[in-house]
Amino acid sequence: MAKTALDKDLQKIASMESATDQVSRPLVLPGIALIFLVGATIVATVNVADGPIAWLVILASVIAGYMALNIGANDVANNMGPAVGSRALTMTGAIVLAAICEASGALIAGGDVVNTISDKLLVRHDAFPVNSFIFIMTAALLSSALWINLATWIGAPVSTTHSVVGGVVGSAMAAAGFSIVAWPVMGAIVASWVVSPLLGGVLAALLLGFTERMVLNRDDKLTAADRWVPILIALMASVFAMYLAVKGLGKVWDASLVQTLLLGVAFGVGGWWLARPWVAKRSIHMENRSKSINRLFRLPLIFAAGLLSFAHGANDVANAVGPLAAIVAAAQGAGVEGAKVALPLWVLAIGAIGIAVGLALFGPRLIRMVGERITKMNEVRAYCVALSAAITVLIASALGLPVSSTHIAIGAVFGVGMFREATTNRGIPNPGVQPYTLFLNLDRLNATPEDALANDRKRERRMLVRRQHGITIAAAWIVTVPAAALLSAALYGALHLLTGSFM
Question: Taking the model in full, what pTM does it have?
Answer without folding.
Answer: 0.83
